[in-house]
């Protein structure tokens, strides 16, 4: 039986109050988030610096059951596979650009007990995934340059999402960057089903309504495509 895709909304906590991370994260989950998108930056692959596995482990100790995705914007993703697995990460998403052997990293992530996500910067073509997509659970198409929250959504990236959906009908495809109520229709129509939204959810007076709107829009597109 073919896998049935559904909308999953994963707020990025990049713009949340990191001093209240467990409270903020629980609030997002209580407002309908399907998973938490944790942005890990090393100050090298991207110019920004966020947090690492010790913080993720602390968050896991507070929030036992939520699905955690770490978006590893790091130059050496292999280095952090075991620490993140130990911290309780469910989906380990790493960028293909700095990696020489993507298939090997995919296998190591799987062996560590996590699901595998591969991420593409805006300048990376979608067809690079052909060689290792069978080893991945999800492909992330960045709709901004990775590194900072609050950037403008790049609608031109939807061509990559459409190409991936056309070639891999049951693949989980995630978009991240500038996604909110004004840009969700483009993402949904292109075929994305995993939606990362930071500023639009965190900065809203009614995050539950924003999350429900994003989810309904994607599910509606999935049911008609």
Automatic annotation (TrEMBL):
It is an enzyme of class 5 (isomerase). InterPro entries: Aldolase_TIM, Ribul_P_3_epim, Ribul_P_3_epim-like, RibuloseP-bd_barrel. Keywords: Carbohydrate metabolism, Cobalt, Isomerase, Manganese, Metal-binding, Zinc. It catalyses: D-ribulose 5-phosphate = D-xylulose 5-phosphate. NCBIfam families: PRK05581.1-4, rpe. Belongs to the ribulose-phosphate 3-epimerase family. This is Ribulose-phosphate 3-epimerase. The gene is LOC107264537.
């Amino acid at each position: 039986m073919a896998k049935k895709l559904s909308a999953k909304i994963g707020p990025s906590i990049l713009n949340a109050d990191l001093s209240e991370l467990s409270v903020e994260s629980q609030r997002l989950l209580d407002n309908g988030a399907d998973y938490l998108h944790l942005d890990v930056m090393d100050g090298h692959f991207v110019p920004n610096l966020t947090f690492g596995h010790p913080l993720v482990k602390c968050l896991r100790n507070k929030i036992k059951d939520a699905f955690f995705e770490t978006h590893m914007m790091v130059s050496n993703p292999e280095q952090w596979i075991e620490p993140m697995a130990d911290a309780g990460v469910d989906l380990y998403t790493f960028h293909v650009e700095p990696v020489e052997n993507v298939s090997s990293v995919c296998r190591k992530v799987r062996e560590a007990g996590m699901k595998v996500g591969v991420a593409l910067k805006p300048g990376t073509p979608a067809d690079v995934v052909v060689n290792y997509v069978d080893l991945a659970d999800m492909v992330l198409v960045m709709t901004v340059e990775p590194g900072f929250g609050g950037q403008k959504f790049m609608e031109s990236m939807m061509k990559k999402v459409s190409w991936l959906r056309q070639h891999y009908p049951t693949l989980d495809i995630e978009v991240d960057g500038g996604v909110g109520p004004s840009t969700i229709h483009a993402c949904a129509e292109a075929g994305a089903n995993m939606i990362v939204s930071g500023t639009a959810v965190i900065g809203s007076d009614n995050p539950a309504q924003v999350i429900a709107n994003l989810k309904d829009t994607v599910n509606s597109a999935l049911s008609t495509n």
